[in-house]
Amino acid sequence: MLFSLIKKELMMEFRSKQIILSMLFFGLAIILIFALSSNVSRVILSNYAPGMFWLMNLFIIVLGVHRSFAYEKDFDAFSILISNPIDRGLIFVAKWVSGFLFISVTQFVIFVPFFKLLLLEFPENTLLFLSTTLFINIAIMAVANLISGIVLRSKFSEILLPLLLFPLLSPIAIAATKISKSVISLQPFAMWNEWFLIIASIIVIFGLAGYALFDYVVEE
Amino acid sequence: MLSVDRIYKTFNRFNILNGISFSQQEGEILALMGKNGSGKTTLLRIIARIMKPDSGSILFQGNELLSNNSLFRKNLLYLGHDPGMYSYLSAKENLRFALSFRYKSQPITKIQKVLDRFELSGFSSEPISVFSKGMLQRLKLAYVELSSWDLLLFDEPFTGLDKNGIDLVGQLIKKWRDKNKTVIMVLHNEHRAKQIADKKLLIDSGKIILD
């Protein structure tokens, strides 16, 4: 069942191409704004780069998760989906997995323009930078999909989503910035392990909460 | 088969359902009638567990539908006003996904055959966003044909259909009756309800006024 649900999410995106493309263009636009408006030295900019990277990610994630649930609203597909004899928690897991894939693909594409356009050095430990980014994405998508599910039935979901999501994503954004900054400056794991554990805790808490609560939050 | 007991539902302090109770035997076709806004669709959506009632109980095949066990809905099929499918996917893909979400798979030849019967075979690979209202209604009928169910909740099955389509629904209802299937339909046409339904429930202001 989970496989079918994920396949449906991927096929929808393959057909419409709306989630990844919109995130990609919005992300590139933000990078361009950062690049053209910042008139500071490379040292200062590299200090702020991890924060800018995650700020950009938060903006594009709101766009992506909103679109992912908007598909469900078209033709009232979501009502039929939840009326089926499926574990509704799996719908959350499918959205979580597909959302993680979409944001990760987007980040891989905008990774190079981000560093190039801001005239920054690539992280020396690129592999660790990318793998920690993927790990943080798991946490962000768990929170984002739970909140999107909660606001889905609201007429004001476009307004409610960022209003609820940004405060909840703030601790992740702070931890993510600290982790990325530490990885870029080649600090040992012991220096940033507590931030890593915060992200791990968020994955466990919001993953379990999303799976368990989705049954209740999606009903009208 | 189905027992709905004292269902209450309020939206913005407005009582939509005011203690609705009724029961339905296996093989019975029930027409749910009433003015716009009387609560017919809300009742169907509550039985399908798309909506949560404020209070009440719904027993289906001896199981409490309002509990969290999704498998209690295994033999229940709901079709609403809207197509309930994904606009970017084709008719074939939508049917395959919809069936897989009901733990059922049908060979593509069978799906194609059913689409052909509902005069949709020429459009089976097109995204359903290009379908007319009548075609979407036919697609829903194809879905009903391919699914297995004991209780069908169908909100306005005749909407958007041409004469052929209406005849097709008539044939399907006859087939469901022969197979002893249980159906609840929202209908607006009194004459049609008399023709096809065994029982009629008239709802007004969230209450059953005629059973």
What can you tell me about this protein's structure?
- The complex is a heterodimer of chains A (220) and B (211).
- Chain A is an all-alpha fold and 220 residues long.
- Chain A has one domain (2-218).
- Helices cover 85% and strands 0% of the residues of chain A.
- Chain A has 8 helices and no strands.
- The longest helix of chain A is centred in the N-terminal third of the chain and has 32 residues, at 42-73.
- Chain A is globular, with a radius of gyration of 18 Å.
- The two termini of chain A are 23 Å apart.
- The model of chain A has no long low-confidence stretch (mean pLDDT 89).
- Chain B has 6 helices and 10 strands.
- Chain B has helices at residues 40-47, 91-100, 108-117, 133-146, 163-178, 190-196, and strands at residues 2-11, 14-24, 29-34, 55-60, 63-64, 76-79, 151-155, 182-186, 199-204, 207-210.
- Chain B has a 6-stranded mixed sheet with strand order 6-7-8-3-9-10, sandwiched between helices.
- The model of chain B has no long low-confidence stretch (mean pLDDT 88).
- Chain B has a domain at 1-75 and 186-211: P-loop containing nucleotide triphosphate hydrolases (Rossmann fold, 3-Layer(aba) Sandwich).
- With 211 residues, chain B is of the alpha/beta class.
- Chain B is globular and about 45 Å long.
- At the A-B interface, α1 and α4 of A face β6 and α2 of B.
